[in-house]
Amino acid sequence: MDTPLRNVRPNIVQSIRAYGVKDLQAAADHLGHHFLYANLAKAQSKQDVLELIAAQYTLPAHFGKNFDALYDCMTDMVHKSGPQTGFIVVLEHIPAHSKFDKEAREQLLDIFRDAADYWSDRKIPFRCFYSFSVARSPKGEEPIEVQNEEPMPTDKILDVSPQALRMSSPFNAGYWLAAA
Asked: CA-based, 20 to 30 A from 62: which of 83, 138, 169, 179?
């Protein structure tokens, strides 16, 4: 198999563009990297964005729900939990409206740029892919749901299990117990 993401710098924050979530998850599996996925389509404010990231990345309960705490979770806390192989991070549908304006979007992306620099200094790949929110599906269409009534991790039709996305999180209890 060809090396996934060989043309993408190992420590970068960039638009998702030609990459699909399923392809990025497969690349993470192939490379042995953590795969972190957050769908922010329902977020309306900074607080919503932070809460969705916390829930979907399975951040610890004591997460402070501010940008400083997000940076700490993406860097120090994970670093203290043991050796890391690398990260592929997806922030899909970052809100683009007046309640989460350009400045807030740049602050969010700066957190991930700073995290990429942090991991670069430690020679650990950290690739973050993002997209901005676009027009929602036409009215009348029902959201796709899985059998256990848990919403899909994306509003696109993809074969990505929400359970598999969570299992890849470096924020699970094993890491936190090891770090304690």
From this structure: 83
Q: Which helix (H) or strand (E) holds 54?
A: helix 46-56
pLDDT higher than 90, residue 167: no
- What is the reported pTM? 0.74
Contact 36, 160 (CB under 8 A): no
CATH number of 12-132: 3.30.370.10
> pLDDT tens-digit profile of 74-100?
998 787 777 899 999 999 999 998 889
